Q: What sequence folds into this?
């Protein structure tokens, strides 16, 4: 995969998309799927795509490659960008963010210049969410930008309206999780407790403040230059919200962007064929729809107390379970008391990492206990697997609302006064979803129906492909446009 990319001269009406993603699993995989789909639309070679990720992530993806190389998987190319630190760490403060932004902008600018020198000029830059150095580079090189919104349309609407007149009412009621706010396009008022965590965080948390500043700049940019916005959702899933947001933004619904269970995926964590063979054979040994799959994503960390409650609840419910628990997934420093071997039982299997989409697609999986990040949510939808949500932060609080209240494909596990989902509560939720009650059967039927709709959208000639073609055509029509210098200088970059 780490072969040097061959130099290709540009073709008439050809496109080269540079897709820039944050260096975390939840950005890289949907970015890769989008890059692949864009390239495959140009069956005559007229469309090519390059996925750029931070150096630290590139090294984990291609351990045998040097960061001076451009790697390829035979469909798209990959190129690393540097933030000047290149250790995968989060920024510390505003000064650190500014330094890394300048370094990232310079690195991406050099990448764009190199492609131009090779005869492969970048004709559009796509960035996942709030990768703001892309805006700097687009202005410098006069290249069109598209925003890849890798969360649901509902989150786009919430963030958009927060910065367009609703911030005061949201922040003034931030300490009341039951207070309801009416937002345009939402089918019913949304409780404050279901808003993304950074919008209702009044603690002065540095990360929340930084995210709000990033989104504010992003929407200032969108308001003035109207870039295209690609949404990783599909029309039938969020019809009213999508219809409303299209009044304000140039939106293309291109989801579900999850690839297929047979496609190779990017894994930033240890994942080998020996482990995969072991857990896939274990799944195969169980009856259809009998296994509880538990995973809280690549970022979430849980306390030892929470993990103990989860394991206790899984054993209490008496159903076979596959639990993903990384050794670095505990908040506690002392992890020696909680090794993987100690959690194994006759009922369950515990692994550090797995190919989630392949697991969810397996016929024996009947329930998904999840943190409800959008990638996990949309993978559950495509796989037709009911969800028990244990949200923690960011968009997860809104996603579980959609899962439970809007789509009826799962339920939320309620936390106690200490913020812990107890084993008793988890066992109750599992039985409610996997049992034989009318509610359980309704959840499973709705999950199955939504799976069929999602797969129709993702199939060849489905709505995702049609909308992607429409997007490319708008870039072809408008690809020669130039930013008005007065407007671009007025944006705080």
A:
């Amino acid at each position: 995969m780490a072969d040097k990319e061959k130099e290709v001269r540009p073709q008439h009406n050809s496109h080269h998309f540079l897709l820039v993603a944050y260096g975390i699993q939840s950005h890289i995989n949907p970015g890769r799927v989008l890059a692949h789909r864009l390239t495959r639309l140009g069956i005559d070679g007229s469309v090519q795509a390059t996925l750029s990720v931070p150096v630290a992530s590139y090294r984990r993806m291609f351990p045998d490659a040097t960061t001076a190389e451009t790697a390829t998987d035979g469909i798209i190319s990959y190129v690393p960008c540097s933030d000047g630190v290149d250790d995968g760490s989060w920024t510390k403060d505003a000064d650190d963010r500014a330094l890394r932004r300048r370094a990232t902008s310079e690195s991406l600018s050099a990448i764009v210049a190199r492609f131009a020198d090779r005869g492969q000029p970048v004709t559009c830059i796509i960035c996942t969410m709030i990768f703001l150095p892309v805006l700097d580079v687009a202005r410098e090189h006069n290249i069109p930008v598209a925003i890849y919104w890798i969360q649901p349309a509902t989150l786009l609407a919430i963030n958009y309206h927060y910065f367009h007149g609703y911030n005061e009412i949201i922040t003034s009621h931030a300490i009341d999780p039951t207070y309801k706010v009416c937002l345009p396009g939402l089918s019913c008022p949304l409780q404050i407790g279901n808003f993304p965590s950074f919008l209702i965080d009044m603690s002065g948390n540095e990360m929340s403040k930084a995210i709000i500043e990033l989104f504010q700049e992003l929407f200032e940019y969108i308001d003035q230059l109207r870039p295209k916005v690609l949404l990783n959702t599909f029309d039938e899933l969020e019809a009213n919200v999508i219809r409303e947001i299209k009044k304000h933004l140039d939106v293309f619904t291109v989801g579900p962007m999850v690839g297929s269970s047979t496609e190779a995926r990017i894994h930033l964590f240890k994942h080998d064929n020996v482990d995969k063979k072991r857990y896939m054979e274990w799944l195969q040994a169980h009856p259809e729809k009998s296994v509880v799959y538990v995973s809280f994503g690549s970022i979430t960390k849980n306390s030892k107390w929470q993990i103990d409650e989860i394991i206790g609840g899984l054993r209490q419910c008496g159903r076979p379970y596959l639990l993903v628990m990384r050794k670095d997934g505990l908040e506690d420093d002392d992890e020696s008391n909680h090794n993987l071997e100690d959690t194994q039982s006759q009922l369950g299997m515990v692994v550090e990492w797995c190919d989630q989409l392949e697991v969810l697609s397996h016929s024996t999986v009947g329930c998904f206990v999840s943190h409800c990040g959008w990638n996990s949510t949309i993978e559950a939808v495509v796989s037709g697997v009911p969800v028990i949500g244990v949200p923690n932060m960011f968009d997860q609080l809104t996603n579980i609302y959609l899962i439970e209240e809007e789509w009826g494909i799962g339920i939320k596990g309620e936390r106690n006064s200490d913020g812990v989902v107890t084993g008793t509560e988890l066992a109750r939720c599992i039985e409610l979803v996997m049992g034989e009650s009318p509610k359980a059967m309704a959840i499973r039927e709705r999950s199955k129906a939504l799976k069929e709709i999602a797969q129709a959208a993702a199939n060849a000639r489905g709505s995702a492909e049609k909308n992607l073609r429409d997007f490319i055509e708008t870039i072809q029509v408008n690809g020669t446009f130039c930013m008005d210098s007065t407007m671009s200088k007025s944006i705080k970059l």
In short: Confidence is low (pLDDT under 50) at residues 1-12, 333-337, 479-493. Residues 384 and 449 are 8 Å apart (CA to CA).
